[in-house]
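hiii so um. not sure if this is the right channel but i have a protein structure encoded as tokens and i wanna go backwards to a sequence. like what aa goes where. can anyone help
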């Protein structure tokens, strides 16, 4: 009989050297399989006499057990290593963007609203919101626009179906109803801005049926038109990032403010580029005025005690001017190429300290 110690050492070495499950299985077949070395030796025992057979049999069994156990242990080690490897290979760093090449971008409207909030927030304005489906009272009546008022025609209102009582809800035509809602629910002093969607049945190069405004409202005992001017001048120079941007306050009319003005920003157009604070061009960006006493009264605020101003800025207009977007309608076409071109990184939150746009 061959030297069993020698065989045991060889087989154990082969087990230890098996680098993977397949190699280990080959070692097992080679040692313990039907034609394996140990199996063959077992078969040879029959030729020995009884005494020798028992001794050799015992020894052979112990080699067989040792090899089987070594294979078992090695198998567990290999399995563990394989699992560790898989866990490492398949681990997900949840702090990384899932698909950086597919990262979404902020629409220029969202970016512009974030910038307005950053600037006005710094000036002490809080953000207020209101419903987009409004009633007649908040959108018109309380804003000093009674039913027969011609200003209603100018608003191209979308109306809902008539209710049994004859009233009709509507899509708000401006953000001004949130002035009313805020004054109804808050004691002055009030200092809010209201960014939001507005709707008018109007569609051409410069109008879309849905658009955005930022309303502003300040109510206290001493605020006057000078504050309104200062506020808008300050806003424009921060937003357009030009010192001393010239603004023109052109007398105008809104039923809910008196006096009223429209605000134009000075700019020059050379070919396709627009520069602010130079040249002889003027572009309208906002309507504004001192809150009409009738509006205060409709909200149970005493106009003998309180006064203030309001303004409404067109968000699309701001975005078009600042980011050189020529056609209003493209804002809402959801064209991915347009969005990738004009979009903003979502994690670059605008702040006045760091600069509004990275
Ligand atoms: N609500 C007005 C509009 O949509 C704008 C405006 C707001 C004017 C506040 C004056 C004061 O046209």
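sure thing!! here u go:
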């Amino acid at each position: 009989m061959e030297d069993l110690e020698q065989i045991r050492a060889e087989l154990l070495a082969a087990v230890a050297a098996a680098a993977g499950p397949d190699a280990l299985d080959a070692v097992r077949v080679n040692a313990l399989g039907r034609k394996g070395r140990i199996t063959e030796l077992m078969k040879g025992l029959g030729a020995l006499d009884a005494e020798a057979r028992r001794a050799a049999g015992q020894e052979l069994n112990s080699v067989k057990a040792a090899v089987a156990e070594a294979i078992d242990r090695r198998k567990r080690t290999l399995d563990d290593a394989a699992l560790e490897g898989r866990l490492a290979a398949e681990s997900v760093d949840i702090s990384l963007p899932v698909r950086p090449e597919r990262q979404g971008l902020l629409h220029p409207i969202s970016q512009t609203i974030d910038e307005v909030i950053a600037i006005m927030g710094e000036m002490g304005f809080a953000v207020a919101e209101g419903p987009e489906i409004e009633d007649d009272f908040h959108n018109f009546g309380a804003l000093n626009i009674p039913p027969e008022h011609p200003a209603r025609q100018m608003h191209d209102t979308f109306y809902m179906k008539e209710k049994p009582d004859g009233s009709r809800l509507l899509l708000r035509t401006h953000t001004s109803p949130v002035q009313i809602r805020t004054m109804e629910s808050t004691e002055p002093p009030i200092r809010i801005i209201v960014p939001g969607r507005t709707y008018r049945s109007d569609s051409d190069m410069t109008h879309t049926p849905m658009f955005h405004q930022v309303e502003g409202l300040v109510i206290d005992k001493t605020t006057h038109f000078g504050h309104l001017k200062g506020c808008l001048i300050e806003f424009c120079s921060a937003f357009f990032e030009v010192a001393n941007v010239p603004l023109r306050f052109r007398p105008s009319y809104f039923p809910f403010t008196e006096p009223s003005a429209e605000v134009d920003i000075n700019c020059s157009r050379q070919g396709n580029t627009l520069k602010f604070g130079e040249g002889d061009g003027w572009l309208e960006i906002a309507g504004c005025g001192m809150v009409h006493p009738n509006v205060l009264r409709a909200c149970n605020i005493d106009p003998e005690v309180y006064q203030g101003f309001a303004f409404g800025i067109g968000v699309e207009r701001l975005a078009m001017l600042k980011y050189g977007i020529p056609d209003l309608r493209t804002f809402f076409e959801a064209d991915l190429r347009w969005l990738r071109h004009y979009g903003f990184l979502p994690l670059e939150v605008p702040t006045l300290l760091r600069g509004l746009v990275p």
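oh and The chain has a mean pLDDT of 91.
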